[in-house]
Amino acid sequence: MTSRQISGEAQDITAPMPASLRVLTPSQRADYGRDGFIAIRGLVATAWLERLVAVTEEFVEKSRALTESNPLFDLEPDHTAESPRLRRLVSPADLHETFWEFVSQSVIVDVVEDLIGPDIKYHHGKLNFKAPRGGEEVKWHQDIQFWPHTNYGPLTVGVFLDDVEPNMGNVGFVPGSHEDDLFDQYSGDAWVGCIAASDLARVDVAQAAYPTGPAGTITVHNCRVVHGSAPNRSNRQRRLLLQTYAPADAFAYTDIVKQSPRGDTLIRGEPARWARHDPRPCQVGPSRVRTIFEVQQREV
Ligand SMILES: O=C(O)CCC(=O)C(=O)O
């Protein structure tokens, strides 16, 4: 497998422009098409944020009883009952109706519709934490190799549950990288879930944008965009609710979310009768992986 995978003509990452947009301005939609990501400050209303934070805190309380990670709770090595330090709550929409209502019915689905059209599948989600003065680095990577699909329409919406300033482990996105190579995220036979240093030399990570904003700010990034995040160097926690959606005509090559009851569910519009294929090859990561933190931190 080589890391240069640009054979075949790319398709648009957006659906055809609808007669009217639900949330985005035409220029935000164009920015997404050009850069592969956008950020919208303070989009999610306070009432929603309060509900999301309240259920998040319920899960943090539950984590106090744990001494090691399990399939739902990914813990930092120094997690304790007195001072819980989570890295991730896996698949929150399967665990609480509030999360499911938010990911399947809120304004963020309208944003997704503006970008990928009216027929939408929820693919999977997670709640990533970065504890104060810690949190793990997430190395530069592209998402689609983790959950390959027949086309590159899938995207991920990140919702800030906290006010995010610089140096809080905010995610950096490399503009335009969705149009470049798809990189090999194996190292030999091992799945490492990140881009090799030798390949990174070809990515202009110095140009990465690191959106900040008040709680309720969202980011939307395409599944090919190179992105990553540093540890949280501040004294405040950074909680980021991430959910991935796919146009109905993007079909997953692996059953990676099949263990999730709500994974790969049509949430809006009609099911597709035809799969749409992007001619560019897609690397296929393993069907069963630990979380990105575990995979990347064990990289040799
Ligand atoms: O939580 C973060 O900082 C980044 C997460 C991320 O990029 C991912 O889970 O793919």
Would you kindly provide a brief summary of this structure?
This protein has helices at residues 26-35, 46-63, 92-95, 97-105, 107-116, 197-200, 292-297, and strands at residues 37-40, 73-75, 86-90, 120-130, 138-141, 155-160, 171-173, 186-187, 190-191, 218-222, 227-229, 238-247, 265-268. It has 300 residues and is an alpha+beta fold.
CATH superfamily of the domain at 36-152 and 215-238 and 252-290 and 296-300: q2cbj1_9rhob like domain
| Small molecules bound in the structure, each named once | 2-oxoglutaric acid
User: What is the CA-atom radius of gyration, in angstroms?
Assistant: 18 Å
Q: Structural class given helices, strands, pairing?
A: alpha+beta
The CATH architecture designation of the domain at 36-152 and 215-238 and 252-290 and 296-300 is Sandwich
SS strand fraction: 15-25%
Name of the level-1 CATH class of the domain at 36-152 and 215-238 and 252-290 and 296-300:
Mainly Beta
How do the helices and strands follow one another from N- to C-terminus? HEHEEHHHEEEEEEHEEEEH
How confident is the prediction overall: mean pLDDT? Answer: 93
| Low-confidence spans | none
Instruction: Work out the helix count.
Output: 7
For the secondary structure, the number of strands is: 13
The backbone outline, from C-alpha atoms, is globular
How many angstroms does the end-to-end distance come to?
19 Å
- CATH topology heading of the domain at 36-152 and 215-238 and 252-290 and 296-300: Jelly Rolls
Give the proportion of residues in helices: 10-25%
| Biggest sheet layout | 8 strands, antiparallel
